[in-house]
Write a structure and sequence with these properties.
- By secondary structure, the chain is an alpha/beta fold.
- The chain folds into three domains: 111 residues, Rossmann fold (3-Layer(aba) Sandwich), CATH 3.40.50; 228 residues, tm_1862 like domain (pyruvate-formate lyase- activating enzyme), CATH 3.80.30; 64 residues, Beta Barrel (OB fold (Dihydrolipoamide Acetyltransferase, E2P)), CATH 2.40.50.
- It is built from twelve helices and 18 strands.
- The strands form five sheets. A five-stranded parallel sheet has the order 2-1-3-4-5, sandwiched between helices.
- The chain starts with a strand and ends with a strand.
- The model has no long low-confidence stretch (mean pLDDT 94).
Length: 427
């Protein structure tokens, strides 16, 4: 039996794609192992969203190529966004790669290369740890065409996943012991528009047809966050009051050049509405500073907005022109060092806000999902609150007691730093 090892790069959506690839290989008779060095087949599932991701993909491919040099019978497969975007122009530069597969037809490409045409097309993902929290991908592609983003060129336009497929996979994930279901896509709020449904309808069905203690949404487009969705989140304790909603900017001239909606007035209104309808909401957002044509007055608007909104979670990125985007060809490009300086200014302001928000949580007793035994000898466990998503947010370090990963336990918070919380079991 030939062995396969997956090396996954990129976002949570790409992560699910990688798990589907290994699930398909396992269903067709391959054994999935962790070690790339010992595997007969190495699959590198790549990202190419920004320049740094492209560099990481190239470095990883080269590293796996060096591993392959020690065994001529190894097969190196490259999948994902880098492969979809660049394989035709770079294949000759990477002779160590035996097979390039894209983001759309990877089943057919794998089946043909490994002569699996009669192999099963029925497969389940090979889930990664921690098992308790798993993503479910509900669509593919994006139709917003933001000026700075290459994703629609790589992944295509937005297409919702069939309703029954999503519900059936959610039920399967529940049967595997998953406690936190994390709903993701390139544009989660656009789900269902092709067949007269919306995200609130899907969440209602997931609540009714499964018993996940926590259901979390990520990647919400601010122009599509509806009253219907807010009312549902505000009334259903099993829905995490967590809004992962990239805003990117607040100044109307910049938003217009970016191709972002709903504009300054609509964004202020949306934040007020979220705070009103979901009082315990955690809002996580991102901003891009240094976009072409951005002025000091535009930056001042961002500063004013962030001080007003007091986001619980905020990431700031200095703009960099991505190959193939409309923004790459725009006039009035900002010098990179200016973009970095402006991003740093926003992060300095946010650090104080984050600390204030963290300190307000100290003394409270909150539900925490236990992710793993702690790798820090001073603590027993690592977990997260409903206001913290995996990988991108902070952790709760639990100092004592006993638990099993996947448990959701009440924890009394006794201290914090800028991003993490510290507590002990109270139940």
């Amino acid at each position: 039996m030939k062995t396969v090892s997956l090396y996954n790069l990129g976002c949570s959506k790409n992560f699910v794609d990688g798990e589907n690839i290994t699930g398909y290989m396992a269903a067709n008779g391959f054994k999935i192992i962790d070690s790339c060095e010992n595997a007969d087949i190495i699959i590198v599932n790549t990202c190419s969203f920004i320049e740094d991701a492209t560099k990481e993909a190239i470095d990883t491919i080269l590293g796996m190529g060096q591993i392959k040099e020690n065994r001529e019978d190894k097969t190196l497969v490259v999948s994902g966004c880098f492969s979809e975007r660049y394989r035709e122009e770079v294949a000759k530069e990477f002779p160590e790669v035996d097979l390039w597969i894209g983001t759309k037809d990877w089943i057919d490409e794998l089946a043909e290369y490994f002569t699996l045409k009669d192999g099963t097309r029925s497969f389940n993902r090979i889930l990664s740890e921690p098992l308790a929290s798993q993503y479910i991908k509900i669509s593919e592609g994006c139709s917003h065409r933001c000026a700075f983003c290459i994703i629609p060129e790589i992944r295509g336009g937005f297409v919702s996943r069939p309703w029954e497929d999503v519900i059936n996979e959610a039920k399967w994930l529940e049967a595997q012991g998953v406690k936190e279901l994390i709903v993701v896509s390139q544009d989660t709020t656009a789900y269902g528009r092709e067949f007269g449904k919306d995200l609130a309808d899907l969440l209602r069905a997931l609540l009714d047809e499964t018993s996940f203690p926590w259901i979390r949404m990520m990647y919400l487009h601010p122009s599509l966050v509806s009253d219907k969705l807010l009312d549902l989140v505000g009334s259903e304790p099993r829905l995490c009051s967590y809004f992962d909603m990239p805003l990117q900017h607040i100044a109307d001239p910049v938003l217009k050049r970016m191709g972002r909606r709903p504009g300054k007035a609509g964004t202020y209104e949306l934040i007020e509405k979220i705070r009103s309808k979901v009082p315990d909401a955690t809002i996580r957002t991102t901003f891009i500073l240094g976009f072409p044509g951005e002025t000091e007055e535009d930056v001042a608007e961002v500063v004013e907005f962030i001080k007003w909104a007091k986001f619980e979670k905020l990431g700031v990125f200095p703009y960099s022109p991505e190959e193939g985007t409309r923004a790459e060809k725009m006039d009035d490009q900002i010098e990179p060092e200016v973009s970095v300086e402006r991003a740093g200014l926003i992060m300095e302001i946010q650090q104080d806000i984050s600390r204030e928000k963290q300190e307000a949580r100290v003394g409270k007793t909150v539900p925490v999902i236990i992710e793993r035994l702690s790798d820090n000898p001073d603590y027993n466990f690592e977990g997260r609150t409903q206001g913290d998503a995996p990988e991108v947010d902070g952790r709760v370090w639990i100092i004592d007691g006993d638990a099993t990963p996947g448990d959701i336990r009440m924890v009394k918070l006794f201290d914090c730093d800028d991003y993490d919380l510290f507590g002990r079991f109270s139940d």
